[in-house]
Amino acid sequence: MKIYIPLFFIVATNLLSKDTHFIGLVVDQKTSTPIHNAKIEIFNFQTKIYQTTTDSSGKFEFTFPENLNEVFIAVSKDSYKPLKQKVNFSSDSNCTFKLEPKEYYLQGILIVDTKKTPIQQLHNYDNILEGKELQKNISSTLGLTLKNTTDIFVRSMGPATSKPVFRGLSLEYLGIFENNLPVKDLSTTAPDHSIAVNPVGYDKIELLRGPKLLIYTNNALGGLVNLISKDYLIEEIPETSVNFSTIYESAFDAKIYNLKWEIPVNHLFTSGSIGIKNSHDMLSGKGIIHNTYFKSNSGNLNVGFRNAILSACAEGSFFDFSYGVPGGFVGAHPKGVDIILERNNINFKTLIHLHKLVDNVSFYLSRSYYHHVEIEKNGTVGAEFLLKNYYFKTYLNFNKTNILNESIFGIAFENSLNDYGGYVFTPSVNSYLLSAFIYQNIRFGNHFIDYSLRYDHKEYNPENIKNPKQNLPFKRIFNNFSFSVLVMHNLGQNLYLGLNLGRNERFPTNEELYSNGPHLAAYSFEIGNSKLETEVAYFTELSQSVNLRNVGITSSIFWYEFPNYLLPQNTGRINVAQLLPIYQVTSIKARLFGFSFRSIIDITTSTTLSIDLTFNHGIDRTNAKYLPMMPPTKGSLEINQKFGNLDLTFKNTFAFSQNKLGEFETPTPGYSIVSASFGYQLFLKPILATLKINVDNIFNSTYYNHLSRIKSIYPEPGRNIRFVASFFY
Amino acid sequence: MKTLKMLFIYSFLLIIFFNSCKEKNTLEDEHDHTEAIGLIIYHNGKPYFKVINAQIDTSIAKEFLVPLNEDRYFEVKFIDTEGHEEVPSESSKNFSWVLDDNTFVDARLLPNEKFKFKMRGLKSGKTLIEFRLNHFDHPDFKTPKVPLVVK
Predict the structure, then answer these.
(1) Are strands A447-462 and A476-492 parallel, antiparallel or unpaired?
(2) Beta carbons of B27 and A384 less than 8 Å apart
(3) Distance from CA of A192 to the nearest CA of B (A)
(4) What is the pLDDT of residues A114-170, one digit of tens each?
(5) Is 0.90 exceeded by the ipTM?
(6) List of residues 6+ apart from A274 with CB closer than 8 A
(7) Domains of chain B: residue spans and CATH
(8) Which CATH code is given to the segment(s) A4-102?
(9) Regarding the domain with residue range A109-728, which homologous superfamily does it belong to in the CATH classification?
(10) A vs B: CB pairs below 8 A
(11) Are A577 and B11 within 8 A, CB to CB?
(12) How far is B86 from chain A (nearest CA, A)?
């Protein structure tokens, strides 16, 4: 019933809205790619009578009065030359506008940095790493790549296990996606489990936030990291291309190679990639950390088809990863452990253009296989994990109307089988998830409203086990409902305010419900709780964005209130075998709040100064303590100077000490480190080369990450020279 | 053109086939394993020292006594959650101890034995000892530190 009311609303508003009589399409002149979020201004002589932006397929629509035959349409977008064109409605009911790039955009290599408009910054809350920014930050793992992003921190147990987290929230609140499909692995279940992706080889890495999150995941208050290659459902491959990139990191003696290709054949295409990564033990400020090596092989192959009505592609991919986790500290395998994981995927995607009430329909089907084994130093299997997942989703994208810029309705279905082996005593679990969601963006004059609603039905079916030690597993069903609303207001000129409110419901994970003894010995003996209820959060965030002539400032203040926050709590009992206190996942009242600030100042046309600062605070209100694993206040100061094709950056990254500690935690001192990067582009026809040298921690300072599980014995990497080279044909 | 299309399709099918072949369907776990909540040490077939639920059973002995300059032979058994005493049969299990001060006793496993050992007091005095049941190299069960007396 809850689903039918919003669906009716969407249909009714679309039917009652006036039909548009002019349809425009904005594309890239060179690649014919549709341009999203291009600014459209329509003038009747000198008077502006209408303004809008293009949708995800590059289209906009306009209703004009009967006596208006001719207008001027101005189209603009960052990194393109603006275009102003006369349009005669009596002869043209639709028109294509081709924008010329200011400089080249080549696959994987963006020569020009794009600056987002304030409404873009607030609208999706998204932060994008691409082109030169991506090359400056790209590293061996996703956590290390994103560690300098505002609001992102890194939890780790060695470099291979580094995982990004959003503010002070748990790992479930930052989803990891590849090309709009979720990455199915076990990285959120234990500190020594790695994310099963290779971040090298993607064109951009998006951090998505805001109401639109709910059409991807049941997480409205956190974020989503989306690793993006080309979206073959909407983007053409204009010509055959090959891209080779290589990275060397001195702190890990890591060598990374990646080869990508795209080959169009009439309406068909094929593309693919191969990646190889090999590293040795990490060199920290206190010497080599043993058993921190990592190696991976990865690849994918796409075949697809595209015409005016239908786009379809099929993809097969694999990721094989082996890495070491160090030992010798409390909570570790005594001599460390070697982990081997493999993840294979088969995906099918289809987009059908209808160009009616529903503009297009897309379907995604994915099948994932994940297997992970932990091998003790004597060669025996300590723990083993298996995950098989089938995932399906569909989106209905409705046409724009006068007030509805974007309307999306969708459903998703998922089936997962989790199995455990070796000395892991969590029972096998077969689970199902059915979701329905809507998202709309509404425009009222100077106001934009984004809202989204999501319903999830989740079933867990654990296997029956004999003599459960502590926690009897039984079937659980959850029905969750989440929503998020973002209101943005233009206060004039380039000042925007946004207020995001919502309620998020997260169902417990397998491990939170059913674990029956520790997989990895920790400071405590942790067991699940089959009786857990949904984790609930109410959230609010006030954001602002202002773009003065040479200064852009964005900031936000957030407040998350959890009447039911899931956290392991001391039961008062002791595990007499390990002599450890028994902790069981229960619910507490919790609160997180903080702020983030970012400013970009154009000192000259070729010199830019960037400043950012992030603060988080978390409280366990039930026990009057601090929440564990809360990141310290951190920030950075960066200056960038361009000399023609040469790009220089100096950056100071700092963090304050963290003394607000959860149980078993120790204080972490603050730090300040300096890094630099030098980039150069070279065009040797027909190959375009970009070369980047990054020197992290130039002065080889010794510093510690509060969220690192091995900080008690080892600091973060010392001086690390990263050499990144890309060659595009 | 047709050849190219067929090549794409075959490549894709090959990928699916090879990936499917090596996939596991289920995993084996250690269902039948020893889970100890205590241990009992025998000497000459009689109970000599017992720890259960992290407490010394003082009805048998308050401390672990080792005679000075004399070998004493022991056998250890572990007590499970139902109170049964057993010698673990899994090859992955082994018995060990940690002494606070190694100078008081000479302790070693008997040849070709995993759960029989001997101790000889080297000097009078008192130290602490922790007994362990290991799964390879990390303890699945350990006692608290208990007093070891040589006299």
Answers:
(1) antiparallel
(2) yes
(3) 17
(4) 445 555 555 555 556 666 567 667 777 888 888 888 888 999 888 888 899 999 898
(5) no
(6) A258, A259, A298, A299
(7) 36-150 (2.60.40)
(8) 2.60.40.1120
(9) TonB-dependent receptor, beta-barrel domain (2.40.170.20)
(10) 86
(11) no
(12) 15
